[in-house]
Design brief:
The strands form three sheets. Strands 2-1-6-5-4-3 form a six-stranded mixed sheet. The chain has a two-stranded antiparallel ribbon with strand order 7-8. It has helices at residues 4-17, 20-24, 43-50, 52-56, 154-162, 164-167; strands at 27-34, 39-40, 57-67, 71-80, 87-96, 99-106, 123-125, 132-134, 141-144, 147-150. The protein is 26% helix and 37% strand. Helix 3 (43-50) packs across helix 5 (154-162). The protein folds into two domains: 4-106, Nuclear Transport Factor 2, Chain: A (Roll), CATH 3.10.450; 112-167, no CATH class. It starts with a helix and ends in a 5-residue tail after the last helix. The model is unreliable at 114-119 (pLDDT under 50).
């Protein structure tokens, strides 16, 4: 059996490099992900929706790793194109054998919220991940309840289309 820390290190390296095919090998099919703005119960849904994360990263600096028998907790500083300062992220991974069965991610969503930082007139907020999106760009969009929503990636647009009420409240 591979040590849980090694599994998590390999997963993180692949995930943050944008190599979803390799990252997928370290996840159970029914991996449970819970984060500040989304949750998933499928490895494929989690990876397709969060694939855009790698494209926004400039650097990942692991600050501290805590280990248990089947748990690994990683504190990292992420430098992204979206923010002008590093962001502290805590990830708690639980393993079942040689695969990750759950991930809980915690970070401050304030800097991504509508109105935080520079908010341009032609920007929109992705209702799934809460990233600011240039509404003039050819970003994915979906219409629901007579409103058009803009997304940072096709993965977030698919997650929204599967359950729009989860991300916005209908005006009716």
């Amino acid at each position: 059996m591979t040590h849980p820390r090694e599994v998590v290190e390999h997963f993180m390296r692949a995930f943050y490099a944008g190599d979803t095919e390799t990252a997928r090998r370290y996840l159970r099919d029914d991996v449970s992900f819970t984060g500040p703005v989304a949750s998933f119960t499928s490895a494929d849904d989690y990876l397709s929706t969060s694939a855009h994360v790698a494209s926004t990263l400039q650097n990942v600096k692991v600050q501290r790793v805590f280990l248990g028998d089947t748990d690994v907790c990683v504190f990292s500083m992420l430098e992204t194109k979206a923010l002008n300062r590093p962001m502290l992220v805590a990830d708690w991974y639980h393993l079942d054998g040689d695969r990750i069965s759950s991930i809980q991610t915690v970070f401050d969503t304030g800097p991504f919220a509508s109105g935080a930082g520079e908010h341009k007139q032609d920007s929109a907020v992705d209702p799934v991940c809460h990233m600011n999106v240039d509404a003039r760009a050819q970003s994915p969009t979906r219409t629901w309840a007579n409103s058009t929503y803009h997304f940072c990636s096709e993965g977030c647009a698919r997650a929204f289309a599967n359950n729009p009420g989860r991300y916005v409240t209908s005006p009716w």
